[in-house]
# Entry
Amino acid sequence: MSQQPGTSGLIFNEPQLWDKSRKGRCAMSLPKLDVERVELDKTLTGDPPDLPQLFELDVVRHYTRLSQWNFGVDSGMYPLGSCTMKYNPKTNEVQAARQGFASAHPLSGDEFSQGALELMFNLEQYLAQITGFDAVTLQPAAGAHGELAGMLMIHAYHAKNGKQRSKILIPDTAHGTNPASATLCGYESINIKSGPDGILEPGTIAAVMDEDTAGIMVTNPNTVGFFESNIKKIAEIVHSKGGLVYGDGANMNAIMGIVKPGEIGIDVLHLNLHKTFSTPHGGGGPGSGPVAVVKALEPFLPIPRIKKELDTYKFITDCQDTIGRIHTYYGHFGIMVRAYSYILSMGAKGLEDASKLAVLNANYVKESLKGTLNLPYDKPCMHECVFNDKFQNKYHITTMDMAKRLLDYGFHPPTVYFPLVVDGAFMVEPTETESKEYIDQFIHAVKAIAKEAKTNPEKLKKAPHLTKVTRLDEVSAARKPCLCG
Amino acid sequence: MRYLPHTKEDIESMLKVTGHTSLDELFNCIPDDLKTKEGIDIPESLSEWELNSHMEALASLNIACKDYKCFIGAGSYDHYIPAIIPYLISRSEFMTAYTPYQPEISQGTLQGIYEFQTMVTQLLGMDIATASHYDCGTALAEAALIALRKNRKANKIAVSSLTHPSHRQIIQTYIRPAGYEMVEVPYTKDGLTDLKAFEAMDDIAGIAVQSPNFFGNIEDLKAFKTIADSKKILFITSFTEALAYGLLKNPGYFGADIVAGEGQSLGIAKSFGGPGLGLLAGTKKQMRNLPGRLIGKTTDANGDEGFVLTLATREQHIRREKASSNICSNNGLNAMTAAMYLATIGKIGIREISQQNHDKAAYLKNCLEKAGFKPGFNTPFFNEFVMKVPKGFAKKRAALIHKSCIFAGMSLESFYPELKTHYLFCATETISKDDIDQLVKEVQ
# Structure
């Protein structure tokens, strides 16, 4: 596999749907009406929406061609830091498509939905086992939605204790969603600086934690790729002032079977089934963001909850202290089926191996590229490592230029310019499902690009060269928005 | 494990590069007292065929494993999904991509969602539609927050009592921590939101009305708009059945400021209630208030047309604590599914399918009336309606499920305790005349 995967080939132009539309076409054979036609009053009805009129092959070609302009995990390595773009097993899709799951109506009643309830009950148990918590809700529809649910529980906990608090501590390595979630609960975000070695120091927390602070939101491993090894001490400080510790579990892929967040002082944690548990990202969702909590927070979990009585499962809603409902039904059940299939396919050992190999892959990339790219924190990392463009700046080459050039080599670029604590960040998360050969190709590509930065910087500045479109004008897109055709 | 590629030799040679002697040593940066002493207590790993039989066993515990006839809607509808939809949406270039942060290699997702936004604006008669939300309930809660934040004086939002019960609960969950309040507008004996009660309400930042409402009835949105204007408050409408707007005048026609809706009807499986598709649309004026992603058209360095995520300055990853919402991942793949569905049925198909939904529901209602059921309300409806059922119906209904897998409507009692003997029925284009005749024969 010495050849780089990126090459040029024939791709097709494809107009927008309405440019293909011809009056009178329809790509669905409509059923014959077997009852009487009943017209609604004319004051109620309007003209039909002006949707495109196509025939079946039109639709098939349109979306086939569009798909060919996309890059997915199935196309190639996707080392997007903090996003855990691991392989999405195909058997999970088969399981979710089973008629008994896919056709289930959410209101057909517990008696006729025992399979769905059992699956959800078991998944809650497994996630509780993996994270070391007492109870889990599967209702949140995405990671940020899980964060919101978690923060609402913290808010409800303080309200129940009789005194609401006004602030929340958020480290500078947090995901952007953390402060936004806190704001929705009316908490003011207090930014916490991490120490010189990229992790939080207990002293910093002790200096600001008080009885008006609801708690702290910690991502562990953090977004620089380090384990917050002072977490227990930090949790003690926060707890001693009556606060709670929120854990952002987006990076759980590094520590399965190694650390259980529920055992190290974290009170509430969200997971991303579409990261750690292999469900597809779908170009931006649907995901699923279950939340795990310690016993003290269990009464606040959203409703409905699932209860097992003898061998029967049922939904319960009479939970006095609940934060309420956050999804119309029970969350993204179809995504839960996929994650459940993944956990059963992996088993405990498989999950632990996945974390170990994810960490091995990241450290291997870090060691292999540290002379090529600047490594702001040179110490062992967890599942991701963060470089920046300091070495390349002297040639006026930025992280963005290198990221765009990587497209020509056939790789999805790493996460760029995040985390904010590292200028020009270039954040690589290979995940465990990339083999040594694929990773070596990536390393080789980055090294070749670093060489080009010296010898042919113009080539990088104008990259990408092989993609269907080249760099897009995002400034005018935002200045004069054109949001529909 | 077939998903893990590392051979023993790979691991050894990679450890040599990282300077470790074992995989466990990679975790030396974690203090020992933080490491778990217990393993993960879950079942042993299954081969694919073991998994298949386990999953089919679970799936067969749901009645949906049989060809059941579901005369229940209430926010989740049974519509025919053409074979090309699951086929095309399974293309892994769509399914296994992340959010299109690198537009040069994401044009498929970007153009697809741009077309989705466009078709949603056409369906709803609005200027702008976002790239999707989780579901109608969460989109509606975001809409309520927009109204509340915009209005400096009022801290209450009026919501019709005929808005889906779960949606009202979600609004409560979302707005309560910020000190806002929801007031419900009661309903009339016609099964419609009480205009007079709404008119009498003071100090509200907005009104949210669902049409067709939870009883299936079509609301007089024009009248609500007039009152909302006189109060100078935001007019929000919602819906759970997107196909209603293949037939009915759309919310844009009636001057809605923001529309929140459920798009599950557009080619998406019921899947026990999720993932569905949250739709959120607004007038031009609301462009910078609407939370969630937007795709815009632009050009590349060569002057060729292309698409990008745009107006990100409203979003959490740029605005952080000042963002209007924390939404990040949305329901993108389901938005793409809905776009495929709308492109497939087109202008001709949507009208015919929508009309057939009404025809079947009207036929069902007629037959039930003849069988001794009384209409709950005498109000125009789309594909759902309420009936007061005869004595002994609950027993017959239960027997019918066990005998023929037919779900004859859903009791309204748990949602509206005053409607103890009332059931909500739904019929879509997938229900045949024979299905309806069988149901009626068995319950009369």
In short: Chain B touches chain A through 201 residues (CB under 8 Å). The CA atoms of residues 139 and 260 of chain B lie 6 Å apart. Chain B has two domains: 63-82+348-443, 84-341.
